[in-house]
Amino acid sequence: MIVMIGATGMIGGVLLKRLVNQSIPVRALSRNPEKLRIQIGDLDQSLIEITLADAAEPESLRRAFTGANQLFLVMSNSPRQVELETSIIRIAAEVGIEHIVKVSSPAFNQNAPVAVARWHHEIEKTLAESSITHTVLRPYAFMQNLLRFAPTIVTQDVFYGSMGNTACNFIDCRDIADVAAEVLTNSKVAGKVYTLTGSEVYSYPQIASKLSVLLGRPIRYINMDPQVLRRNLIEHEHMPPWLADHVLEIQAMSVILPERPTDTVKQLLGREPCKLDDFLCENIENFQ
């Protein structure tokens, strides 16, 4: 039995579908089981055991983990991440989980400190110190997060950042989910650390050019001073300050540490990862 934390998210929701389509039973945890039932729609619910559990309530996790042998762990970033995920790992070890697949972040680097990466680094240390076989997935920027730019592209034909012409790795969340399904169902590739990217790197100006062609109107990328961007994220996108800081930190890290694609997705899945061009075409109505 595979138990899942994060079944309602961009990665977990796709992974749940992949596992059910392979006729693999899954126990999906949620603080709102009814919402999850609605979200999974027409999936074969005979293979899905929806269980009420809260990462902040250890006893609910102990009950939910009992009888399972694998755990998929992905949580939205938050200031409580280290506290919650290390607790989850320790409880999993107590109840006999044999394999954990954790979605982490690109490796923390002292030359470009990113708070969220530091949190994941601490959680990975807890995993390494546990007796549990573990697989760590370290994806770079999600293509799906580009949809965050849609409102200003629709209304102003612009989007904002602070990376200049720096090229970045992007990966489709569906590719991350497919890799997770592979490592959960193929013991030969479990127990390792995988850095996940798409097959190409792109700068924000290049993405603006691609959107201009697809939309038939000029789209501009405007590079902003980091502190101006931070204020804009908080005031106009209503981000909490810690999340705005995270956006600035990862953009600064991209500038300091050049990003290069890996071939990990192809090696694990036997196919190329999703291309950014295809993702933008698929989602172009969001920018119109």
From TrEMBL:
EC category name: oxidoreductase
Keyword Cell membrane: no
Keywords: Oxidoreductase
Record carries keyword Nucleotidyltransferase: no
EC number: 1.6.5.2
GO terms, molecular function: NAD(P)H dehydrogenase (quinone) activity
Residues of the NmrA-like domain: 2-259
Pfam families: NmrA (PF05368)
Protein name: SDR family oxidoreductase
Organism classification: Bacteria, Bacillati, Bacillota, Bacilli, Bacillales
